[in-house]
Amino acid sequence: MTPPTAISSSVRRALLGGISAALLLGATPLAALAQAWPSKPVRIVVNFPPGSSPDVLARAVSQPLQQALGQPVIIENRAGASGMIGAEAVAKSVADGHTLLMTAGSAITTNPFIYASIPYDTEKDLTPVAAVARIVLFLEAKASLPVKDAKEFLAYLKAHPGKLSYASAGNATGLHLAGEMLKSQAGVYALHVPYRGSAPALQDLLAGQVDFFFDPGIGLTHVRAGKLRLLAVAGMSRSAAFPEVPTLDEVGLKGFDAGQTHGFYAPAGTPAPVVERLNREINLILAMPAVKTQIETIGAEATPLSVQQFTTVMADDSKRYGAIIKERNIKAD
């Protein structure tokens, strides 16, 4: 019998070659998939109108993403039904990585609680891909309100139950939920005045028709001009744009967080290597100074996260918003 040490070099090479080939065959499907994708233009469905925060964020990311992927990246706005029209379109698309959803966090975290039924399952039909930005709300009051800071505002609100009103972008929107969170945690009452969008709500605040407003960032130019009074940040950390302004948590409303994370999703079943590459590319894009600046123009903060971190953030937001929706019995119109 030939001892092992006597195996010829040619036989050894043949054996090693066979093992290497077997290993390569096992790895080929995933490697080939990652290399082959994308094979055509990537479509980003934004489920809110042009000019909305999800639209601004999608456009900030799309051009560098196109360069990274080597394929055109096309943005398609499919707004309506609180984001459900666009989300349904993506949920029912082919799960090959060529169709993505860019959505406001509310379409994922609040819609399942405020609508009796929705045409897809946010957990089963959509796969989290990458967070883009945390949208922070800013508590603002009309300039004529006799308060100079958040503590005075809360005291004034408590001393005048039912006398003040707050505007929102519509019933069951994030701005409405923020107002209800304030009323619940502070033990106060104010009249909710819903509008068809945040822009008309802001206009009536500027005109003095309502007293305060949770601003998604569109009123900050008026704050800087002295036309509105910025009282607090409705999140767990101060805004880099207004570092001197405290959070509501700091002034006594512990744990107050009305923020939403906007991000990308794909149809369930999208191959893991594709999701992982998208997550990696988008996180690199979010570190680009020009992209960070674009995100900051709407008062938001870039949030590069792993897929698991993104999933956890959204689950925490869903739990928090679900609780306030149930407590205040909030329903969609």
Plain-language structure description:
The structure is a single chain. Helix 2 links the parallel strand 1 and strand 2. 41% of the residues are buried. The chain is 43% helix and 18% strand. The strands form two sheets. It has a six-stranded mixed beta sheet with strand order 2-1-3-10-4-11, sandwiched between helices. The chain has a five-stranded mixed beta sheet with strand order 7-6-8-5-9, sandwiched between helices. It is globular. The chain contains twelve helices and eleven strands. The N terminus is likely disordered.
Q: Which tags fit this structure?
A:
333 residues, alpha/beta, D-Maltodextrin-Binding Protein, domain 2, 2 domains, six-stranded mixed β-sheet, five-stranded mixed β-sheet, 43% helix, globular, disordered N terminus
Concise structural overview:
With 333 residues, the protein is an alpha/beta fold. The chain is built from twelve helices and eleven strands. Strand 1, helix 2 and strand 2 (73-77) form a beta-alpha-beta unit.
Total domain count: 2
Helix-strand sequence: HEHEHEHHEEHEHEHEHEEHHEH
The amount of helix comes to: 40-55%
Assembly context of the chains: single chain
Main β-sheet: number of strands, strand sense, barrel status? 6 strands, mixed
Q: What's the count of strands? A: 11
Strand content: 15-25%
Structural class: alpha/beta
